[in-house]
Amino acid sequence: MSQKPANLLVLPGDGVGPEVLLQCRRVMDWFSTHRALPLTIDEAIVGGASIDLHGVPIRPDVLQKARAADAILFGAVGGEKWDHLPLAQRPEASILTLRRALDLYANVRPAKCYSTLVAFSSLKPEIVAGLDLVIVREGTSGVYFGTPRGRETSKTGEVFAYDNQYYSTSQIERVCHFAFALAGQRKGRLCSVDKANVMETGALWREVFNRVAKAYPDIAISHMYADNCAMQLVRNPKQFDVIVTDNLFGDILSDCAAMLTGSLGMLPSASIGTLRADGQRCALYEPVHGSAPDIAGHNIANPLAMILSFAMCLRLSLARPREADELEKAVEQILSDGKMTADLCGPDQSPTSTTGIGDALLEALNANAIKK
Ligand code: NAD
Q1: Distance (Å) from CA 217 to ligand 1 centroid
Q2: Is residue 195 annotated as a catalytic residue, yes or no?
Q3: Does residue 144 carry a catalytic annotation?
Q4: Which of 95, 83, 85, 22 is nearest to 58 (CA)?
């Protein structure tokens, strides 16, 4: 990798967002110092904090910084204080604006079950122990974006509503290419999920996926209908390596897969965009959880989803897979040492604070670095 510093934009947001990002920044600084990873880190205000200061959830200059960044680390936004505002003016509009403006078409959600957290899953330990899968969800098209959509009243006075599931060849192609490349970096298995049996968009999805597959002869492919996939995720989730699917099915299946692993405080995500002229992809990394106003300000939030999002950034944006492994290993290690925030503790355990998790992680990284 060239020595040109990677330009990262940090957007803490509201509630626990700033708390978990603070610990993440300590980890980022550690890698910058100890792993010759030159980083330029800029920080900006979004969400409710931006509404309070500037009257809008995200300012145009912040959007501009986001466009220029090599990667964005996003905390979380939202809170009751702003819930009375119209949807487009609420804190949550900042993340939707970023996704749209940066064309973040591939939403990547890993579901990994850490051995120490097996008991937190709603499924039997033998079903989830060792689980490690990734769902790639198309994020900028499909039924959530298709037009026409709306609500009307018929001549007989009946109200009806409609949405439009829309996909073009190029939209399917680019997310499939991304998923094939990701499968190539993992166990080399990719399952495409659709409803090709009953939906036109499903039939097109399958056709395009099969065409793209020809460029990746080393990847073992399979197809699954979305309803069967939901069933297989709870029956035998370890059969999957990478799943690629559309926006609607991905939304539902990724939440289902996430819960196999037990805790919201452990789930990272990435949203990847198109290649820029400089060869870098726009990418945004964030925990799956929200701003958790009920626990904000108490130094008890689990920062690991945010920190594991940085591990994804190391792998997907900064081309540092070894460092990503190193960070994930340190996370696994502190969990097995019993260092856990309250959301992961049983009744007989004493929880570690948010800051304490940051301390433990740096200690583990330092100790492992000495062993090397
Ligand atoms: P939430 O994810 O914030 O919280 C759900 C539950 O999980 C709460 O009990 C919370 O305490 C717990 N939790 C969440 N993160 C945790 C962590 N890191 N450690 C320990 N426990 C954690 O979801 P919610 O309560 O539905 O939403 C709260 C606010 O967050 C709302 O304003 C919502 O709109 C917003 N939100 C933002 C995002 C985002 O910024 N991308 C995503 C989802 C929700």
Answers
A1: 41
A2: yes
A3: yes
A4: 95
